[in-house]
Write a structure and sequence with these properties.
about 750 residues; ten-stranded mixed β-sheet; 29 strands
């Protein structure tokens, strides 16, 4: 940490910067150029982001406050209580704005013949129909609970909507509680009206029928509420046993998370005195944590309104459909591995499809010459074809090594489930490192053909997630360049033995060389003075050392353009500090997620794509990769891509020295960079056949941990994998030599 950085005057608090990004999402809901149902989705996105912010960031700051430490955050000079005070003030202001935006959107929906109704607004006939619908389709799904001295309060789940009230039970006051099941539809379309769409909210129907749920017992002071819990639980907690299987420890952590302290409560109306007195004994919160909300507490329905509409009804209210294109760089009737051997290829999501990468893995799974597939996984789709192809490869006798990060926040259970499936298929599964998340996205495929070993590498800025590849902007770089291949081989060898401080000639890899590499590249531009150039596209920037380096570069006259979607702790255009540093943020149809680092200009230009933001967690506490781009055509494409982002004057906003965002007013023609990229991207709208997969069988697991600054493994030990240095702390279960491999090929096996 750089001492008293906040006194320099060119940094801002990380948490408040995050909230300003959330505000940018809410502003999209106000933009009348955005289709109406998409504007509703931005309200849902804002709400989801805010919930995550409270569970992740406010939870950890609250913990610091309870520890009564004298920690002062170094960007704005605030102690934990000072941060919490500003956070709650800002969040409550934004929630009030959300209420105003929602009211305007309801009116706009009404003008389109779509009525978002309270039960009081329903007709008598609709109320009668809802009663019948409740008894037949809803009531059997509900579980009611009485809370009193003999019936303890259940552990309230974060994000679940509850209907509640007070009742008499055995002559005493009791608390009536019903959770709204997530398996039920969020909204119910009412029948009868052909010229309009009328719907009510599931949470309101359940609240209205509380008396019925409790068998005719009158329920008074009824309301709805939801809670957000601190999600900052760690598997490194001392309560976890050191010898536990890491996956079991993750399961314990997920259970623990469900009982952590509350950081926010939203209620549908003000508490009555009786309800407030009762809840204060059951839910321990401060007044500032409670927010009264008149809009529905379940905002996920905003993503699904089109589900209750016909295609004709929703067509004019949503974005025009866009299908990611199949990259024209490939010939899909020929082997993809061979094509990558001859030229570098860059896939640009979501404008281009992820299918070529999936096809590459699928081809490798059945190619008799392919000997191994190695891959790191951080987040996956709920139904991931990639996992099916990796399982197929293992069953076909390939060596499949998968480093899957179980600590990917909120995807822990999904990754645990996939790790089991991969193990059962015969893959070698590594869980990652105890103190470092593996956030890199790399896949290495090795082939032995005609006694010649060859490799193909894919390095991506985003996850191998087939769903988000259609929603997030990312790049996937495929190459067979010898230098990058050698580094990639070394990377996986190092990961297998728990060695984080490996040496790489071309790749920048954190935690060992990412930050120093970036700072060296900045120093290189500082040496050029006013001829220096830096352009970077990132999600966030918080790393103090990199921020200070950028400040030094600005003072030296280097022209710096940062495209930062979210958190930006460096303030631009501060006189005498960051005069030559400029920041833009783009929030649009797609989530800007790709990272590009560009240093210099002309022949002297250095260009990387990366999985890492300029955040301390990325540069010091994660395994990340930045790969240099050397192909002239791809370099030209990425430079043009950055130029488009910098030219955007519709969805881009300019950050000022006070940390506020402003519309860009210039005399240039209007340009939406995302729309322009959709227009420019050529290729086929077709998708590749998915095929079917084979059943799985048991594999082996490495529980890799990194504690020592270095791990000593001899060359012979490294190659054989049979011995481990005493300085390594990882555990392994060796694969039995006698275990037979499946000899079945292709897709003929029955599904499990």
């Amino acid at each position: 940490m750089i001492k008293n950085l906040y006194k320099e005057g060119y940094t801002q608090n990380r948490e408040l910067s995050w909230l300003r990004f959330d505000e940018r999402c809410l502003n999209e809901a106000k933009d009348e150029r955005v289709p109406l149902l998409e504007r509703m989705k931005f309200v849902s996105i804002f709400s989801s982001n805010l919930d995550e912010f409270f569970s992740v960031r406010v939870g950890s700051i609250t913990d610091m406050k309870h520890m009564k430490t004298d920690v002062i955050e170094n960007k704005a000079g605030l102690d934990p209580e000072g941060q919490l005070k500003k956070i709650y003030q800002s969040a409550n202001r934004l929630c009030q704005r959300r209420e105003d935006v929602f009211r305007d959107l309801k009116k706009a929906l009404k003008r389109e013949g779509i009525y978002d109704l309270s039960l009081e607004e329903c007709t008598k006939e609709e109320r009668t129909w809802l009663k019948k619908y409740f008894h037949s389709a809803i009531a059997p799904m509900l579980g009611a609970q009485i809370v009193d001295s003999r019936h303890p309060m259940p552990a309230l789940q974060s994000g679940v909507i509850y209907a509640a009230g007070l009742m008499k039970y055995n002559g005493r006051d009791a608390f009536a509680l019903v959770a709204v099941p997530s398996s039920l539809h969020h909204i119910i379309r009412l029948p009868g009206k052909r010229d309009s769409v009328r719907y009510v909210h599931m949470e309101d129907v359940i609240l209205d029928n509380m008396d019925t749920i409790f068998k005719g017992t009158p329920i008074r002071d009824k309301l709805k509420f939801t809670v957000i819990r601190n999600a900052d639980a760690s598997v490194d907690d001392e309560n976890f046993e050191e010898e536990d299987d890491y996956r079991d420890r993750m399961m314990q952590m997920l259970k623990k998370r469900k009982r952590l302290d509350l950081v926010r409560v939203e209620v549908s109306r003000n508490f009555s005195e009786g309800m407030k007195k009762y809840l204060s004994r059951l839910i321990h919160t401060e007044d500032r944590m409670v927010y009264v909300c008149s809009m529905p507490l379940d905002r996920k329905y905003m993503l699904q309104i089109s589900d209750i509409l016909t295609d004709e009804e929703s067509k004019k209210l949503e974005y025009e459909p866009y299908t990611p294109k199949l990259s024209p760089t490939f010939h899909y009737d020929k082997n993809l591995f061979d094509q990558i051997q001859k030229k570098d290829i860059l896939l640009s999501y979501p404008y281009e499809s992820m299918d070529p990468f999936l096809l590459l893995v699928k081809e490798a799974a059945s190619d008799p010459n392919v000997i191994s597939i190695k891959i790191t996984i951080y987040r996956l789709a709920k139904k991931a074809r990639l996992v099916d192809y990796l399982c197929l490869a293992a069953e076909n006798g390939k060596e499949v090594d998968v480093l899957i990060e179980l600590k990917a926040r909120f995807d822990e259970q999904n990754n645990i489930d996939y790790s089991e499936k991969l193990m059962d298929a015969g893959c070698t599964v590594m869980y990652g490192f105890e103190d470092y998340k593996v956030h890199s996205k790399i896949c290495l495929i090795s082939r032995m053909k005609d006694r010649k070993l060859s490799h193909v590498v894919l390095i991506s800025t985003g996850n191998f997630n087939e769903n988000t590849a259609r929603l997030y902007t990312d790049f996937a770089y495929l190459t067979a360049r010898s230098g990058i291949v050698r580094d990639s081989v070394s990377f996986f060898q190092n990961m297998m033995i728990g060695k984080l401080d490996g040496h790489y000639r071309y790749l920048l890899v954190s935690p060992v060389s990412m930050k120093t590499g970036v700072c060296d590249l900045i120093d290189r531009e500082i040496a050029k003075g006013e001829n220096g150039r830096i352009t970077c596209k990132l999600n966030s920037i918080t790393d103090e050392e990199i921020i200070v380096k950028l400040h030094e570069a600005s003072e030296a006259g280097v022209q710096i353009n940062l495209i930062v979607r979210g958190i930006c702790c460096v303030l631009p255009e501060v006189k005498g500090k960051t005069d030559n540093l400029h920041v833009r943020s783009i929030v649009g149809r797609y989530l800007e997620h790709s990272r590009i680092y560009m240093f210099g200009s002309g022949r002297d230009l250095k260009l990387y794509i990366s999985s890492a933001d300029f955040m301390t967690r990325n540069t010091e506490r994660r395994v990340e990769i930045a790969v240099p781009i050397m192909d002239p055509k791809i370099r030209a494409f990425l430079m043009e891509y950055l130029d488009l982002c910098l030219a955007d004057n519709i969805k881009a906003r300019r950050l000022d020295k006070q940390g506020k965002y402003h519309h860009i007013h210039d005399e240039k023609a209007e340009l939406n960079s995302q729309e322009e990229l959709m227009k420019r991207t050529i290729g086929s709208d077709e998708t590749l056949p998915q095929g079917t997969m084979k059943p799985a069988h048991k594999g082996i697991v490495f529980d890799t941990k990194y504690k020592a600054p270095s791990v000593l493994v001899s060359d012979s030990e490294n190659k054989s994998g049979k011995k481990r240095s005493k300085k390594t702390s990882g555990k392994s279960v060796k694969k039995s030599k006698d275990k037979p491999r499946s000899k079945k090929k292709g897709n003929k096996a029955k599904k499990k």
